[in-house]
Amino acid sequence: MNFHSKEPRHIIEAQQFDLADALRNGRDSCMAGKILTALFYEPSTRTRHSFEAAMMRLGGEKLSTENAKDFSSAVKGERVEDTIRIESAWSDVIVLRHYEDDAALRAARVSCVPVINAGCGKGQHPTQALLDLYTIKRERGGIDGTTIAVLGDLKYGRTVRSLCYLLGKFKSIRIFFVSPPSLRIGRDILEYLGEKSISYLEVDSLEHIIGRVDVIYTTRIQKERMEGLASGPEFLRLQHSYRIDAAAASKMQHGAIIMHPLPRNDELAFDVDDLPQAAYFRQSDNGLYVRMALLKWMFMK
Ligand code: ASP
Ligand code: CP
Q1: 220 lines ligand 1 (CB under 6 A)
Q2: Closest-lying ligand to the alpha carbon of 125?
């Protein structure tokens, strides 16, 4: 299994989603006797705990460090490669979140057990993309033919990058990239979509397209990756330039949904939460089942 490949075709087969559906209800102990090690060098609410819960629900056990940057031997200068060599001796699978874009790739090169990229730098977050696709399929009945607007910090956010790589595998996808000019999506993603003949358009605002999309996928400004932005007036201006609230949601077409990888800031108003369009908490819940399916699939004979 290669989670760092730009072509992870083998993990988006429909069977994986069927497995996630099956695991929603049934019990399974396929991970009994196995250990998942969660090494997180960046904060997380959803990804770390949903992986740990997935492992435990499958009968396995976990070792976990939620702040490896400050509380592992990284503080003493240990490189991630050395840490992974050590941890892989007593683990069956390593789930790594890191602040450097290439950390998962470097980890995989030295690990003797599978490494799952749980979000590295501004690079990728592939299991988020899997649960995003699963959510679109569950909410809308399918993925082919989806018109999606991705909003926000497309430059430093990693979830949209991974989502684009997976959307590139489907048919008749249309993507609108909506962001302030300073936070545009990387050219590498646009080139990839071009190779896959996916139609896309970069726009500054949702105004003219909000009634034409099936999915709005909004994201927060990654201020931790933008030196000096903190929460000053520039941050607030950027954040409000694409805010979704109930008034905006009312302009969406029937059956369209709003997604967000979470956590949210002010770009997604609380008054959206109880609307039928709000799919983001279900999206987060789906992470558990998708990660259970992924773990089960990885260790299937
Ligand atoms: N939780 C997601 C990530 O780790 C999105 C975000 O933090 O904005 O990439
Ligand atoms: N969506 C996501 O990755 O959330 P966390 O950063 O809380 O893990």
Answers
A1: yes
A2: 1
Backbone angles phi, psi at 222, to 5 degrees: -85, 75
3-class DSSP string for 243-269: CECHHHHCCCCCCCEEECCCCCCCCEC
Q: What is the CA radius of gyration of the chain?
A: 19
- Ligand 1 proximity of 119 Cβ (cutoff 6 Å): yes
Biggest distance spanned by C-alpha atoms of the chain: 55
In sequence order, the 6+-apart residues with CB closer than 8 A to the CB of 149 are 175, 176, 178, 206, 209, 210, 213, 215, 216, 217
pTM score of the predicted model: 0.93
Q: How far is the CA of 100 from the centre of ligand 1 (A)?
A: 14
pLDDT single digits (tens) 9-47: 334 456 678 899 999 987 899 999 999 999 999 999 999
Q: What is the rounded CA–CA span in Å between residue 29 and residue 155?
A: 40
Ligand 2 pocket, residue 119 CB under 6 Å? yes
